Amino acid sequence: MSTEENTAKAGDGGRGPGRRLHGAIAHKLGTAILSGKYAPGDILSGEVAFAEELNVSRSAYREAIQVLTAKGLVASRPKAGTRVLPRDRWNLLDPEVLGWAFSGEPDREFIRSLFELRAIVEPAAARLAAQRRDKADIREMKDALAAMRRHTLTTEAGRAADRDFHKAILQATRNDALLVLSASIGAAVNWTTLFKQRARALPRNPIPDHVRVYDAIAAGDPAAAAEAMNVLVDLALEDMRESMEG
Question: Cα–Cα distance between 225 and 216 in angstroms, integer?
């Protein structure tokens, strides 16, 4: 399944063709902005010209621009047109924006920043999860691990299980502020895993790293859980570097 199909699948939700159309336009423009085709300060083509270029309605284009505006990528003003905003205004942790970033060749600095975010958040979350988890949390993590083994991370089902595993850890912290990050962390895990497989198989099997995190959380060992998660994120970054160099 292509990146566009993955993004459409994640964002469609059974909505009608009109919604899918403006979502496709938003994907095209968002990918162009994230790839650098349109730089901050650039003015996008007017709705008439763009609608004619893609053979879509002006209303679909306007709705797509509203999507980009909500994500902080652009701002529209009467007579001034639609301008790409500075990068520090972009909602880079929005799951859909992350998907657009990985549609092409993502910026190495952006990849590094994602892994730095994970290295800050996830070990601390694993530590809290080891202290606060209950039986339901343990069961969710165990079920996610089983699905990861069954489907492998080469499939959408396996990657969905991987997202479920990381989400279960954040849920187990009982920290609402951390839980808000679950969609972003899950999307970062998903897209980086997909990206590593763009040209060849994963360099190694990361599931044992997840098992060590699970074992430490299940055992109620905060220090071991934090360390295991720290190792998991570090190894994932090394896999990404190897994939990009390859």
Answer: 5
